[in-house]
Amino acid sequence: MIHICSDGSKIKLSSMSYMHLINTIGLLERKAEDGFIVREGGGTCPDNWWYEEYEIKGQEALEHLGYVHYIEELNNRTKEVKL
Distance (Å, rounded) from C-alpha 76 to C-alpha 60? Predict the structure, then answer.
């Protein structure tokens, strides 16, 4: 899974620092709680262009943001830590 940073650069979740991963998870949780507008559109020519926008929040927003992949990466790192 690829993460897009605020500056537009792309990195693998597995390459994110621990704190970057934790901070991103917190950001995704806040965005999901507040809700946000999703804008989608497409088409190959003006005759079949389409556009839709809708608001999502909560669990639906977390799914849209790929939250589960960030949690899985965090869990994988936690399993690697031996006390």
Answer: 24
Average pLDDT value for residue range 56-64? 98
> How far is Cα of residue 30 from the mean position of the Cα atoms in its chain?
12
Cβ atoms of 2 and 10 within 8 Å: the answer is yes
Output the DSSP codes for 1-45.
-EEE-TTS-EEEGGGS-HHHHHHHHHHHHHHHHH-EEEEEEE-SS
CB 67 within 8 A of CB 28: yes
Question: What 8-state DSSP symbol labels residue 57?
Answer: -
Whether the Cβ atoms of residue 31 and residue 65 lie closer than 8 Å to each other = yes
pLDDT tens string 10-19: 999 999 999 9
pLDDT for the residue numbered 78: 86
Please state at what angle helix 18-34 crosses helix 67-80, rounded to 10 degrees.
Answer: 150
